[in-house]
Amino acid sequence: xxxxxxxxxxxxxxxxxxxxxxxxxxxxxxxxxxxxxxxxxxxxxxxxxxxxxxxxxxxxxxxxxxxxxxxxxxxxxxxxxxxxxxxxxxxxxxxxxxxxxxxxxxxxxxxxxxxxxxxxxxxxxxxxxxxxxxxxxxxxxxxxxxxxxxxxxxxxxxxxxxxxxxxxxxxxxxxxxxxxxxxxxxxxxxxxxxxxxxxxxxxxxxxxxxxxxxxxxxxxxxxxxxxxxxxxxxxxxxxxxxxxxxxxxxxxxxxxxxxxxxxxxxxxxxxxxxxxxxxxxxxxxxxxxxxxxxxxxxxxxxxxxxxxxxxxxxxxxxxxxxxx
Length: 324
Description:
Largest sheet: 13 strands, mixed
CATH class of the largest domain: Mainly Beta
Number of domains: 3
Strand content: 25-35%
Number of helices: 8
């Protein structure tokens, strides 16, 4: 199992291995904590600037481990694995630095990194230009080891909140399955999971434009406190209103007068589970509430049925829930 975690953070894991790893993480709380610790180490390493990466990476990771070791004693086997992951991260940074510094800047080879969050979790990634990205559950961010001269382009499958470092000479582009979003420096949220009809983006600061990849001339421009949704293949702009939907960054899923049917769709997406509802009246009933992500889908359902009673059965083996 720990070999799979190492392969995941080194970018060598296959799609089948990733699916197996995420399934085990979802079922094993201790493994989930172990994975989160390594994820923090990985995120920490991504904060480093390009210059002198190999020295600062070792120092920061060592300081991180030392601080946490003083606060909590871990079993020997976990410390061994954590040290192994940290070493793998440091080696990756060191080798990348050495290869890149052997080349002239004009000859630098662009390689891509991919960061994926498991179901029921979130993560933060800091890009090389200083941009901060929060990823919601089951989201993937693909980004280069260094950006091109003309633009800073990343690819998103899922939901993410971007706090983009301003650079008026190099716009930042988020490419999704349906549409692209271009900014100079701003804060905005994007919901764009592959294979789903729903696409929306919400702008908090700055300005952005949303457009089809091959048709930027017909872009829709957004101002702060506006949302854009894709409806019937057309972009529709509206005022943002309540911002509680952004609480997912803090580990909270918030719903304000939302039909049960739509809430269930989000639970299926975020927790990677199939939920069948055999109650037509319940599907249209609207709920408001906030749920801690880490408490899981069953905790959320138990809270919802206090408002409108229903029963449910969970099949652990087939990973599904039936609501009556």
